[in-house]
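Student: Send me a single protein entry containing the residue sequence and its fold in token form, directly below this note:

Tutor:
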Amino acid sequence: MFHLIDEFEKKIALFTGAPYVITTDCCTHAIELCLIYKDINRCSFTAFTYVSIIQTMIKLKIKYSLLDEVWQGEYNFKHTNIWDSALCLQPNMYKKGQLQCLSFGYGKPLDIGRGGAILLDNKRDYIILKNMRYDGRDLSITPWNEQKIFFPGYHYKLNPEECAKGIIELENYISKKNFTIKTKKYPDCRNLKFVYDLDR
């Protein structure tokens, strides 16, 4: 079944021009893995984004500032090479040396209901992030307990069944040749209050 994950990743790579692709269970977790791996402790980004991005910054104890930046398709976490590309899926969209995080959630360019991916070109980063994505596992080793060394891992994988759906939907998406960059009106997150003391 894991061959479906590889096939989906290869098809996304071919379409986007990224040398490597790692699928995840959502775009937010793709971004989180990149932030953890790159050891980001401070960044700034648009205030007009989905609430999960702010929650991730708080969760990882990253100091962040929000900008007035208006964006379309994707935006960069300033002073990093990490991108939230949730509303963008274009032919040859990959930017050299970057980590671009896609979304396959509802209403996104490739809508399979859930899922995400990381586009990248560094082989070492690819190997480490790929293992991080699935409990620190090397999927070429089965059963999992045959693997003797595990690095930090997270249960953020996309299932083979979802990848099978993604393969079909990607083929449909490509055949329609309608690659318009999506837009969405997000609220200004500076107007939201985040309370992490649950006794309040």
Q: What stands out?
A: The chain has a mean pLDDT of 94. The first strand starts at residue 20 and ends at 24. The helical segments are 2-16, 27-37, 51-59, 123-133, 160-176. Residues 160-176 form the longest helix (17 residues).
